[in-house]
Protein 1
Amino acid sequence: MRVGLIGYGYWGPNLFRNFQVSPHFEVVAVAEARQARRDELRRQYPDLKLCETGEEIVAASDIDAVVIATPVATHFPLASRAMKAGKHVLVEKPMCASVAEGEELVAIAKSHKVTLMVDHTFLFTGAVSAMHKLCQSGEMGKISYYDSTRINLGLFQPDVNVMWDLAPHDFSIMDYLLGEEPVSVEASGYCHINPGLPDIAYLTMHFPSDMIAHFNLSWMSPVKMRRTAIGGSKKMLVWDDLNPEEKIKIYNSGIELRPEAQRNILIPGSRIGDVFSPRLDRREALAGVVDHFAATISGKVTPIMGGDAGLRVVRMLEMAQQSLDRNLGVAKGRSA
Ligand SMILES: NC(=O)c1ccc[n+]([C@@H]2O[C@H](COP(=O)([O-])OP(=O)(O)OC[C@H]3O[C@@H](n4cnc5c(N)ncnc54)[C@H](O)[C@@H]3O)[C@@H](O)[C@H]2O)c1
């Protein structure tokens, strides 16, 4: 399949590299608005077709699939035009900027019988695959909490706040692992640097099953942390994505109700068992994304990160944004 990539900024080169080595695709064109980035590509790949705007790729008759790695606001116009022109689309996270746009993209993909996939890259990491098996097999038991910390210093994005930048990763992972949508979200954020764009956000989500999820998102932390804890009735786990050796630790621990000796009641007691760290697949996640895109287009698999999954993530973002908007300006001294 002949592929055109739109956007060769920070993330685009990673997609370019993985599509280039894929046996399923041939990268025939790249669109990039910045001259300096096009010049760089021209020096390395003199035969590659280079365009200034994504519209040229979307309209090209000799391209079967389009990969979109541009800022969020451009995802909807580029993806919708590409699909209406009969092209399969892999779009960067988040899929688009609103639920209304997402619903339209899903409808266009359906009516034009093309594949719409979102690059929720983490779903193809060894760690998330292992956690998916643990959660879906019932080994963890009933999940009671999901607690995530994704913090670092910068990179400040000029067009989106810290939640739209970082939370799509967490929301897509949680959605894939647990398959439950929240009924409500409380979000608070502060704008310390760019007015109107919170750089710290704390989110709490509530679910029909009584599960609770919490997300700590920040561009203001001196240290980088990528840590998720998931608590189940049978097992609990901690995923530290920055730990090269033991990314996941599974604790055979939990809380059990035991009879109290003196009285006729049950009291909660802790059960502390072994800790296990599984061996994980270390293949680059983006290579898995590219393979999955090919397999989905050829009808061999149902996508785990299709338009519906992308829309669920955008729905969570929009719900959280509404709460963030309500809470911005509540505290004295906030610059909203
Ligand atoms: N999956 C991941 O882990 C991951 C990681 C980083 C970024 N991203 C996503 O990738 C997307 C791009 O992020 P980035 O950090 O690479 O941004 P970026 O600003 O570094 O790059 C975007 C590039 O697109 C170009 N561009 C914009 N509109 C264009 C158009 N209409 N035609 C041609 N070129 C155009 C810009 O000139 C720029 O070079 C975002 O949606 C972001 O969330 C995903």
Protein 2
Amino acid sequence: MAEARLRELQLLPLLSLRWATWHEGQRRDTRATGASKPGAPGRSCCLVFFWVKKIKQILEALDYLDASIGVGRRMCMGKLRPNLCLSKVTVNLDPDRSPPSARRAATRRGDRARSSTTSGPASSRPAPARRPPSAVPVSPRPSLLSYSATRHPGRRPAPPGHQKSQMHTSVVVVVLETTEVYIVISLSTRRDTQVVYVDPTTGALRYLGKHGEDVFDSEAAALNYITDGSRVLSKSTTYAKALLGYAVLGSSALLLVATQLSASVPNLPGGGCIYTVAESQWIKIQLQNPQPQGTGEQKNIRDLADLDIDGKHFFCETRDVTRPFPSPMTLREPDDEFVWNEWLSKPFKDIGLPGHCVILLQGFAECRNFGGAGQQGGLVALIARRSRLHPGTRYLARGLNACSGTGNEVECEQLVWVPRKGGQRIPFSSYIWRRGTIPIWWGAEIKNAVSVEAEIYVANDPYNGSLQYYQRLGRRYGNKSSEANVSRQKKSGRVPVICVNLLRYGEGKTESVLVDHFKESIRYMNSTGKLGSTWIQLVNYDWHATVKLKGQQQTVEGLWRHLKAPTMVIGFSEGNYYDVRQQLSECKGSVICNDDVNGGFCMESIQNGVIRFNCADSLDRTNAASYFGALQVFVEQCSRLNISLDIDAMFGLSSRYSEYDGRNTRSLPPGWEERFDSVTGKSFYIDHNTRTTTWEHPCQEAPQKPWKRFDMTFDQFKGSTMLAPVNHLAELFLLAGDIHATLYTGSKAMHSEILNIFKEETGKFSKFSAVQNVRITVQRRYQNFVNDSSRQKQLEMFLGLRLYKHLPSIPMFPLKVLSRPSGCMLKPVPSITPMTDGGSSLLSFKRKDLIWVCQQGPDYVELFIYLGEPCHVCQLLLTVSHGAEDSSYPATVDVRVGSSIDSLKLVVEGACIPQCSNGTNLLIPLTGRIDPDDLAVTGKSARPNVQESSYLPLLYDFEELEGELNFLNRVVALSFHPSAVSRTPITLGEIEVLGVSLPWADMLTNSEHAPEFMEFLNKKSSSVHCDLGSKSFGNSSMPGNDSHGDFDMSEPHITENTFGNGEQTNFLDDGFDVNPFAPALEVPVPKVNKQVEECGSTQLYLNFFESLSGYNKGKGLDFEQMMKLEIKRLRLGLSATERDQALLSIGVIPATLDPNRSVDYSYLLKLSSLADNLALLGHTVLEDRVNASIGLEKGSEHAIDFWNISENDESCYGGACEVHALSSSQALATRENQSVFVECFRCERTVCKACCAGKGAFLLLNTYRELKIYGGSQSGGYSALADSFVCKSCCSEIIKRALYVDYVRVLHSLRRKDRSEKAALSAVNQVCQLEYRKASDLSQSIQFGQRQLKQILDGEESLAEFPYANFLQMVETANDSEPLLSLLAPFGTGEYKSYWKAPQDNTSVEFSIVLGGLSDVAGVAIIVSSCGYSTSDCPIVEIWASNKIHREDRAFIGKWDVQDIISSSPQLCGPEKSNRLSEEPRHIKFHFPNPIRCRIISIKMTLPHNGSRSTKFSEEFDLLSLDDSSVYESKPTNPQNSFIHAKRIVVFGSSLRKEVGPDTSGGIMRMKSYLDRSPPLGRFRIPVEAERLRDNDLVLEQYPLANSPGIAGFRLDFFSVIRPRVTHSPSSSELDTRKFSLTRMEDRFVNPAIIYIQVTVVKESGKLVVEEYRLPEVKANTPLYFDFPDLQQDARCVIFRLLGDVTAFVDDISELENLNLRNLPLASGLSLSNKIKLYYYADTYEMGKIGSLSAV
Ligand SMILES: [Zn+2]
Ligand SMILES: [Zn+2]
């Protein structure tokens, strides 16, 4: 029966091997287990019944297995063995896993939310547990989701008496018909439900944390909201139980969820369940983003989604399980070495949901319960965590790598505990060991798929990183920090690391070379003296040879002899868990507590040190040996927990069981005999040697002696130990062995039959095993040969490593679409039928298929888009939409952006929109506004020859034009112009504006994160204040250092300083010094700033230029000098324009200093490809360094950095330097002592800092070194060599120059980053003034502000809060005022006493506030400034409401005189009295008569002229000035220096949760009916007589046949190229950005690559017609049609020329798969070959058949 079920489960292929084994021994197995089950004496009569019941349970469990969907295959393997099932069933606490009868009562969240009886097929959500195994969790056809809040009570009910640990996490992924994706997450640890929206264009996750919008009380309420009460259809719904990760990968996104879990360790001591992912699913989300992406990248993404997760990964939602049990840390601080989804969980962390992705570990976790001898049983869990430092497959991940991790490295933990009822202590003990491949640099290669032995290679410097490896072990397993051990064990603080090496070391064995190296490495390690307290010992034990020679039993005995001493020294951890913390006060050992656990752990002892097992692969031998080692500890652990596994502890009955099993042949010493006492039924023993008898077995003379079993023979062990628990443990090891073998080799473990040695009949298994082993060997060989490299790639991508190689074009930080609702149209968009929504459907993704037909006639259509959040606008994304005729879509667009409607700036004019098919997505990249003056100076006008088409700035963009960056842009105005040929009204489709917005919510309202930001901003702003921003710089070889140093080279002593700094160079301010790139230091504030201020950076630049040309005595600069000049320029913070202006002012043509032009073309190609390669190497090094630092103390950094470039002329230090690559200078000889000397790796001479090339040079020279060992280009292990040096005379000139190129590229990118950070800073300054505050003050102030706001709102909602709301128009602000936006800023930001004020002579101001969304406004409140009101500055307040910006449309709400109000509320007058902040700030509320539904609120404040005011209020004044009119005339402005002021403006009411615009479908239908005409004309190809490509295929000349029709235009099939993310080595700020950044704005968005196509028509007459088109980005090979403005008759030749940033693109990786260097100057995908066709228009009917042949 079970077999049949398993077949149904379709797991047989996977199980076949083990199945065969099991099937044979099944019956025996059952009996054996039954027998060894603890049964109390005298209970034998019940036993039969007991077993009947148990078997029933097993069958039920199997039944359930069948019914439950896709229980992981690993789990099933467990269930196959009835004894295991027993354990499972009895241990099981998870309702989901319980048999059917219990299942009905199961309470999953969703089930809880509705009644458990289903209410009809359409509305019921299928309970996952009931689905058949074949069912795909995503229902393929649209299903109606029905979650009515009324039917299902909204709250997630917490059933009384149920603890929260019994609630299960539920994840529902809903894909709507519109392809929009929502992730609905209800965590077991929280009571509410979060909804995360996946942006359908960019894939960015959106979560605001607003109740009712993306936070709900229950899952049902959330689903109800998403599907709009089931009115919206969902395409598919996936139910999952945990969120594992998410990644946006260009044009698609991947979401990884666990759909089935198995509670593999249901209840850890102190709570917490470890779940194994039994089944997972990658949900692929197709995005609208047309960002070009290569087929190679797409294939890699598909590969990533094939990664096998199931059964091999586990997690715990409530406890940290990345550390040995019990972890002192909380879930929030896992040990990175074992977190496999760190990268994949980042997107959720970034939106402020750090706990929503589980912390996923790779490996194995499972537990069994076992009985002791007639006493209480215990639980044993085996947890094996795989390290991620050296991920990968067998033949690619061996030995050490650059992260100082070894291949297949696993930390194993054996946790034994005695479960008790709550309220008592839970005793437990935990034993840790490690396994991995040999920690030296080595590799192996298979020659072909069938060869038996792999060839082993050992690196030249095989111990590179070994030290770090052992240091890491020492840190993790040393318990010197624990007070308990120091006091109690009185050890010298040594941490023993015992390496048990199981390799063959006999003569002629291939592995013996490794053994020798291993020995040598440990000798070397100990000799360095750098191990600290770590103490390494190597034990060699040739496992295979011993087995062959002595058999298995003696092999085990031998192992025990070796392990006895180390195991006893290292010991294991023991302790008790107490539910109540108070009980811990009596704890004598150390106490471990953290916030994730209610009670705490009292540790009696803590393991000190670790045993590490290895064979060549850390596979079969390792698993077996570690089992026998752990077994000894297990027995000891049990005995310490008072679970005796001694067989004599079971009297009578139990002995008889052993008799039945034939196990009573316990070995007795020679001369002994065992007999039975017929009276008692007990055994007794006769010693014939001494002629005595005893009840005690002679081998158990001292039952309390610890570790006694180490001294036993195999038979003695077997005879004296209860074998059922032992075999339970063996089962765990068998399963774990298979998992780890599969992870590493793709097949199961071999030679594992030895683990069954304690079972009977092992002999009978062996023949199966032999077959099995052969089969696995073949399988592994095949897997390794065929799949290793692609699996390696998968793993790297999963971990987020080497993405610049596998997915080069993927941005790390996707843009946001900011035009979606709550963005809106500020003016109605004209349409051919009256549309009630005013055009807002153009901004909604839900109307993807919309064709908006504008009014007939107008020259152009203008749209004003208000963005949902302020941002820097980066891209405009258009969805082409038209009827049958594509010419109705506009031909060009102008884009203006601004922070308000009256400050719009033209960003691009006449951007071309080619004609293309309906639904095409066109991306128009935007720069910020470029100053026309800049354009005039730099660029073409600075070049001597304008028509220089062969010029390619391959090294870097010498003429970069810098667009303005503004993060407060809010309004985008688009002007669409129709095409010349269009005969129909303009049609429009969906419009999206993409940009980068600042993390406003975190900065302004998140009391947790705001202080962090504030500190960062303060640091930034202070650096702006005390110097000229980037116009200062540090040591010349420190890109990324935004502190300051000396740079003046005119005085020699300053050069000296440069070196002085050089030696102390360190890294980032935060001391993150794993980075080999950019040293930074608290450099003293330089005198340089003074110089900059005195003569200006321009002058300093020119001085430097002149000094350089002075050297050359009038000759032009050479390449290195030009680069130095550019380095100087970037250091001084000059833009390209400023440089050109300066140079032109002294009569130098800038182009003559362009390094791109200074070298010949083929050299340029070589140089740029070397620099590209260096960039990749640099990123590899950075990645490896970051990972290598995990678990280690921070290392110190060397003075010689990646580039070692000094912008000043350097000379040899002399002294010890043996290289003298530079001419030495006498003056510098004195510095010898301070300078740095290293040894050149090549010539082994001593070299000074100046004569040494940067680390990058060494990498470039060694890229191809020993690929077999260093993992080839795939894993780039050679980055470990980045600490080696090469002298300047050992590396060629081109390598030195490549370092210069890379260095300048880095500086360029830093300048961009700096510009964006500054723009961000200025944006923040326009919202609230920065001032330094203590973190705690700030978070308090924010919390206080939020309470204040709540007071004022009195239950209403705040509708006009920045960043969601904004001013529509600028309002004039006094100089000493808080910024205008502070009026809308959240409470608690900015200085408490300060406020906004108008300039003094303004007696009237008007605020137009665009609300956060369409709302029902109930009123407006003005928070009174700290100065309070006086009689002279009380304004008259008038309020209007409207939906669009037209003034005439707005509705007047009312007029209030504040004077009236304050007369009744005198507390509003005068300055704030007390310093105490009141809970309710002083404010005036203006209540509307009725709530008004609107989008814009206008508030006008007018200061009445004094006279009229005074007459009203002041009797005295009235008496004095009787003449009203004189007062009126003389005082148009305020006499008493009063001005309009306010602290905040609060608009309150209720927002409409959804954009419930009027139903527009009717109107849209009517619009479509206008487009029903069929196209009268088609495009036909103009035959070409000849064509010619030139200038790197960027220029195409086409010669049409004579008598061709006039040319109407041309078709261009878009290029298949990508824009790589990595273009230069990382700088220190790169690390910054990973950890913390204000803008997260990538280079490619600061400086987008824009390409143009220029078309020159040469007429017969010789006349030229030139047109230029700015190209949008579209998907590869999309046909684009460009119509000429006029028909081109008599064309002799048409020349197409690709211009612009062509060098920014490269080919897809599928083209370059095996190439390390780019051989081409340009991407071959940019070639115009076969891309362009000329066409004319003609009537399709007339053309007939010929037409169809030549249609274009
Ligand atoms: Zn030197
Ligand atoms: Zn050298």
